[in-house]
Design goal:
The strands form 2 sheets. Strands 1-2 form a two-stranded antiparallel sheet. The chain has a two-stranded antiparallel ribbon with strand order 3-4. It is built from 5 helices and 4 strands, in the order ββααααββα. It has 2 domains: 60 residues, no CATH class; 171 residues, Up-down Bundle (Four Helix Bundle (Hemerythrin (Met), subunit A)). It holds the Pfam family DinB_2. InterPro entries: DinB-like, DinB/YfiT-like.
């Protein structure tokens, strides 16, 4: 069977076994592998520790993502902001079409920033702070958002100007920074309702961990696609 050049997206391959395969050139992106303590063996060798070490080398500060106390969370957020500042500088130096370019159907750089606005709104503004109308109109929800019971009309249609996206994004980054500046240890354990599953509970700490995870994963995706765009020339 020849599966050369095939593409698999949004599918579950847990515990799949491949034997006698020619896997040269395979490109795997598994956001769950590292954080769930998974195993990925190639010719009998678990490559997850190597992948983890390489990601931590490429993204200094990512190791702080699971910080448990206010001071650690503030340091983790400072690392996130620094990493995104560097990436924004990189994008500003690339060709004008970079911010709206899609690689293999993935979100563009501008769309990624808009999604992070929405992620901050749902986990900080709605879940932690309990704001009744938490969403910035330039936020970008993912597929299935409406099915989860949310009103998609909260978001503006069309393609906004990049300057407006940057302004919205900067505002949300500042909100997290300001929240963390005043955070004390007792607040971390406060019970919150999971925004996607009302029957599940979270706490302030776990919500902040989700925000940090969203930031690092989408930065990784963005850097991956920027590399691809540069290689295209």
């Amino acid at each position: 069977m020849d599966l050369s050049g095939s593409r698999y997206s949004d599918c579950i391959l847990t515990d799949a076994v491949m034997r006698g395969v020619d896997a040269r050139g395979i490109d795997i992106d598994d956001p769950w592998l590292l954080r769930d303590g998974g195993v990925l063996r190639v010719n009998g060798v678990d490559v997850v520790p190597f992948v983890r070490d390489q990601l931590l080398r490429r993204f200094p500060g990512m190791a702080l993502m699971r910080a448990a106390d206010p001071e650690g969370l503030r340091a983790a957020w400072a690392a996130v902001e620094h990493a995104w500042e560097s990436t924004l500088e990189r994008v500003a130096a690339m060709t004008a079409g970079t911010i709206g370019a899609s690689v293999d159907g993935e979100w563009s750089f501008a769309q990624t920033l808009r999604h992070l606005v929405m992620a901050t709104d749902i986990w900080l503004r709605r879940t932690i702070l309990g704001i009744e109308a938490p969403f910035h109109p330039l936020g970008l929800p993912f597929d299935g958002y409406a099915e989860a019971g949310y009103d998609a009309s909260a978001f503006a249609p069309g393609v906004p100007e990049y300057a407006e996206v940057l302004k919205a994004r900067a505002g949300r980054l500042a909100m997290v920074r300001e929240f963390l500046a005043e955070l004390d240890h007792d607040e971390l354990g406060e019970a919150k309702q999971n925004p996607w599953n009302p029957e599940s509970s979270e706490n302030t700490r776990s919500c902040l961990h989700v925000i940090l995870l969203e930031e690092w994963e989408h930065l990784r995706f963005a850097v991956r696609d920027l590399d691809a765009l540069e290689n295209r020339g």
